[in-house]
Design brief:
- The chain has a two-stranded antiparallel ribbon with strand order 1-2.
- The longest helix has 20 residues.
- Strand 1 and strand 2 form a beta hairpin.
- The radius of gyration is 20 Å and the shape is elongated.
- Helix 2 runs antiparallel to helix 3.
- With about 100 residues, the protein is mostly helical.
Length: about 100
């Protein structure tokens, strides 16, 4: 659970929140539908995760882009449009407000 808002919950309230018989764990960030939401709702944690994924994806793409033995530019564009670009834009609607 994340405590989002201007006022922080006192410790006694955190102990009163129940999920069944247990008290849920509290954290500074949580993943919801693949988007990392942090305490301040500024999406920095999500952007960091997206940047790490893009680095791996671009490494995959660059491995296929050798001038002599690699794929053609048309295939590389299709790879980018179908594999890299959707990962980059996932959750982009939230960036406008972040």
């Amino acid at each position: 659970m994340i405590n989002i808002g201007q006022k922080k919950l006192p410790g006694c309230w955190k102990e009163r929140v129940r999920y069944g018989d247990n008290t849920p764990p509290w954290s500074l960030r949580a993943k919801y539908l693949g988007v990392v939401i942090d305490l301040h709702l500024n999406l920095r944690a999500h952007m960091k995760r997206v940047a790490e994924k893009m680095e791996k994806s671009m490494l995959y793409l660059s491995n296929n882009s050798n001038y002599v033995t690699g794929s053609s530019p048309e295939i590389l564009l299709k790879l980018f449009q179908s594999y890299v670009f959707p990962q980059l834009l996932y959750g982009a609607q939230l960036w406008v407000f972040g």
